Amino acid sequence: MIEATRGRIRSTLLGYGLLAPSLFGVVCFLLLPMLVVVWLSLHRWDLLGPIRYVGLDNWRSVLTDPSFGNSQLVTLLFIAIVVPAQVVLGLAAATMLARGLPGTGLFRALYVIPWICSPLAVAVLWRWILAPTDGAVSTVLGRRIEWLTDPGLALPVVSAVTVWTNVGYVALFFLAGILAIPPSIHAAARIDGATSWQRFWRITLPMLRPTFFFVSVTGVVSAAQVFDTVYALTGGGPAGRTDLVAHRIYAEAFGSAAIGRAAVMAMVLFIILVGVTVVQHLYFRRRISYELS
Amino acid sequence: MNSPSRAPLIYTGLVMAAVLTVAPFALGLLTSFTSAQQFATGTPLSLPSPPTMENYAALAGAGFGRALAVTALMTAIITIGQLTFSVLAAYAFARLEFPGRDALFWVYMATLMVPATVTVVPLYLMMAQLGLRNTFWALVLPFLFGSPYAIFLLREYFRSIPADLLNAARLDGANTLDVIVHVVIPASKPILATLTLITVVSQWNSFMWPLVITSGGRWRVLTVATAGLQSQYNAQWTLVMAATTVAIVPLVMLFVVFQRHLVRSIVVTGLK
Questions:
Q1: pTM
Q2: Which of A103, A266, B112, B128 has the most crowded Cβ, counting Cβ within 10 A?
Q3: How confident is the model at residue A80 (pLDDT cuts 50, 70, 90)?
Q4: What pLDDT does residue B173 have?
Q5: Closest residue of A to B43, CA-based?
Q6: Does residue A228 contact residue A120 with C-beta atoms inside 8 Å?
Q7: Can you give the pLDDT at residue A288?
């Protein structure tokens, strides 16, 4: 009896001893910041001077601020362009890769490279390629196009660079999904006389539903936080047309030195992202598996 | 399963996508070896003649050597710390019984929902209060003590290690640390390799946190240095392309070496 108790105490000490470093990290750098951000949203701080309590002033000013409204709208548009585009193109790339033709491995690896690279460096690279006078695209086309400063073009172009970065990554998931479909299903359909087009629509696409959902939800969550790309390509301009929420938080905090307002914006983003994640879990619980009997 | 007649069509598609993927990198790489004079006078897309290292020499003069060293050191320290502490935590969650274990695990999992964008502002305040702004500590501390996601993946893996293997080691008189080092880690090489690669990639590329917490040349990382160079010398594209090449090439080389493994790890972890 005493032996057992002693064993339990030892195992408890050991458990908490092993957990200590990561527990310190989780508490100090993940949980505490979430409390600090709430606290900060009720204060005014300019990065240098004293911190002053201002009640709900920041909340009032941010929620009625047209520039934050603009950022949310721009982010929504950005998500609406980026996520469907990278899902469709990723699926297209995966269908080509799934044929298993010789050399497929090389192509698959090539497509992932943009996603491995630093988004900041990739954005700087594209900034040169799209530069109006001495950029690669202008040289090839032989005419000057203001890709990044034209109010109508800037957001589609920033979205296109993001899609270019992510397509290969998205394709990997679709490829895994397609290869997981039992060949017998396709074989049976072929015997029944289904064309390859019919098999794609009636078998492949429905079987890929979980993959669709996964890449869409993770796509939304990551697109909602894009920062590096905008920072290097447009700096949020022209006239706020590419001022994504993550960039607005940064500009508010470290450009305008309005930390309290930035904290409010960060909390709004957090609440929206948690909402997306919760919806994801509810959905996955409902349709987790496919009966193949 | 394929009608062979369709192969040329598919290859055309695959090659076109590959060209679209690779061309920007190739153009940037060429430009980085082009002299500023040739770039200004010739058409920007002509081959460098002769190829020059002057842009890279200029980068070295602009403190890029130091930025490269800081980035490598930051990436190495965070990766080692994160893996070590994640392994310890995952072992506790997977293999030990103690009160509060499951509740704590759920707390860890809940923190997966905390996006980095949201913690940057409060972390900045915390580091400022501790007087750690613009120090190497500020770069590494927030990421050093393990990652809940790594702990989650490792815990799954550790649970699948046969109990007999661990018990045998313990009967031979090994303590917990021995068991982890000599039994658990060797048995978990694939997942550890995956996590190492993912951590190296994400830390090497990290930008927002280093951007806000450091200033000046002392602890500047490659991404921040590249961004700074671009805004400082906007028109000097040959120099800027050399900078992006320095930021990109080490990871592409890592990718080429571990390509097979990395492609699989992305699908396994599903996370950047």
A1: 0.91
A2: A266
A3: very high
A4: 82
A5: A139
A6: yes
A7: 43
What would the two tokens of residue A127 be? 């900034």
Which residues does chain B have within 8 Å of residue A228's beta carbon, measured at their own beta carbons?
A: 207-208, 223
At residue A261, the pLDDT reads 95
Please list every residue in chain B whose beta carbon sits closer than 8 Å to the beta carbon of residue A92: 13
**Is the model's pLDDT at B3 over the cut of 70?**
no
Alpha-carbon distance A291 to nearest alpha carbon in chain B (angstroms): 23
Where b means 16+ CB within 10 Å and e means fewer, A18-55 reads: bbebbbebbeebbbebbebbeebbbbbbeeeeeeeebe
Identify which of A110, A250, A254 has the shortest CB distance to residue B21. Answer: A110
Between CA B204 and CA A171 the distance in angstroms is 24
Evaluate if residue A98 carries a pLDDT over 50.
yes
Place of tokens 């074989």: A187
Q: How far is B196 from chain A (nearest CA, A)?
A: 14
Share of chain B above pLDDT 70, in %: 93
Min CA distance, B257 vs chain A (Å)?
11
Contact between A227 and A244 (Cβ < 8 Å) = yes
> Which H helix or E strand runs over A155?
helix A154-179
A78 in Cβ contact with A160 (< 8 Å)? no
Residue A152 and residue B61 in contact, taking contact as beta carbons nearer than 8 Å: no
Local structure of residue B81 (DSSP, 8 states): H
